[in-house]
Amino acid sequence: MELSTHEETGAPGPPSKDAAREARDLARAAVRLDAPAVQERLAAAVRTHGPAGAWEDVMVPALRAVGRRWESSGDRYVEVEHLLTWHVSATLRHAYVSAAGHAPPAAVSPVLLACVPGEQHALPLEALNAALAERHVPAVSLGGAVPSEALTAAVRRVGPRSVVLWSQSWPTANLPLARHIATTCGEAGGGRTRGRVLLGGPGWGTRPGPGLLRPRHLAEALRLITAPDGPDPDPAAPAGS
After folding, report:
1. What's the CATH architecture for 17-100?
2. Cα–Cα distance, 208 to 210 (Å, whole number)
3. If you classify domain 111-226 with CATH, what class do you get?
């Protein structure tokens, strides 16, 4: 489940021409610091494509385009990236609130979403949270840089059906913590099932090991979360397969 989803084998196809145009228009509005236009385009993208499609086909391409401008301009355009990031977050949270407010009471354990300690890049989890709410899948989102002790405590209290841990860069990826969370999930479930832990973001290695799942894009994460419980992933299989 990377920031960009279409370069991975098995990922959804490339954005449509309309979505690509929407992404360009969004990036241009951000460069102009036209906040009303940015918000209007983001809201329209969610209405047209849903939270998951808007994230993958419009928001991520626009964020990457703005990021490339920043990287190539000697730290100019940082205000543009901040503006766009703020509005993307606001739009995704609004989509979550709108969907969650119309969801029937949940009879299943929620999904727990968290950034690992030291990791502040929470936007992809906000997109996943909104997409889960649209599908009436209950979730508990803890946001950025969750301390290990707090994460473990949350797993024990919530007893989640799945845990998604996000790492944007390798220094924050913590496989021992992920394995500990998988074990704690099993304990929280009374030992009946092993914890289903999904590792999202480019910080994780490609072969995390048994008991850990490695979705390569948002659609795959949604499929794994909503799939019935099955056997542990094969450690010899390609990540995300």
Report:
1. Orthogonal Bundle (1.10)
2. 7
3. alpha beta
